[in-house]
Amino acid sequence: MILSLDFSSETPIYLQIRNQVLLAIAGGKLKPGEKLPAIRTLANEAGVNMMTVNKAYQLLKEEGIISIDRRSGAFVSLSRDSKADVLARLSKELELIVSEAKVKGISKAEMRELFNRLLEGMEEEK
Amino acid sequence: MILSLDFSSETPIYLQIRNQVLLAIAGGKLKPGEKLPAIRTLANEAGVNMMTVNKAYQLLKEEGIISIDRRSGAFVSLSRDSKADVLARLSKELELIVSEAKVKGISKAEMRELFNRLLEGMEEEK
DNA sequence: TCCCCTGTATTATGCATTATAATACAGGTA
DNA sequence: TACCTGTATTATAATGCATAATACAGGGGA
Predict the structure, then answer these.
(1) pLDDT at A123
(2) 80-109 of B, contacting A, C-beta below 8 A
(3) Residue A38 lies in a domain
(4) A40 with A87, same domain?
(5) Closest by alpha carbon to B28, among A110, A103, A84, A74?
(6) Residue A91 lies in domain
(7) N or C: which end of chain A has fewer CB within 10 A?
């Protein structure tokens, strides 16, 4: 697992880690059931504190994206919650992005193109 | 201007204010050139500190969404920056949302439908 | 002129979050 | 036994968020 962290970013380190794990899973680089690095290992590789990685893992666990076995470590384990809840949450985030796009003069066509391009990175669940 | 703030939200108050102003503009409730409430007025109405509203206005100003006249106050003033920069920024935010959708089992069709519904709230710029 | 309206600035306080360091512990595995 | 997991604790430090109480600069209107 290779992390690229920006220590001068306004995004907290633990969130950057969480985001990159999420992207790796969505991109198919990490598959369900696959093991994540041990928190000490990842912390050493990334040059951050053990507890910072731990915080990222705890967040992913709360989000139902990984499970943690106290003996063997963390692994990808997707629990799907209520579709309505997920859609409601994503809708609020999307609404802000769409609003930013509008006030910045991005057209509907441009937004649709961008969105479709990103969607294509989503292989359907089988 | 009516604000609905959630003081127990993890989203900072100044950000909630910024978001609601943005949504009001994108939704056509606040038009370019239109005056925003004075920071003291809005602070009193919302029951928050003057400097919290000021922080939200400063952020909106940095983002090129409003202008502030030290004499007469703040008003909507959209400066459009480089389209490439805006798209790059929005793309990163969208990427995370799309990833979350995927791992949570939302289909492409469902995402497209949600996105299109939100896009319809965008009247084209004339 | 005087008062009121703007945004802005300053100083102090309090609390939560983020991140680190250095250990220590529980418990399964080889 | 030695080593690997995650977890917990305590301390420290920097930063972010929010409030309070003033104070200031400066334009506008009565």
Answers:
(1) 62
(2) 80-81, 83, 86-87, 90-91, 93-108
(3) yes
(4) no
(5) A103
(6) 83-119
(7) C
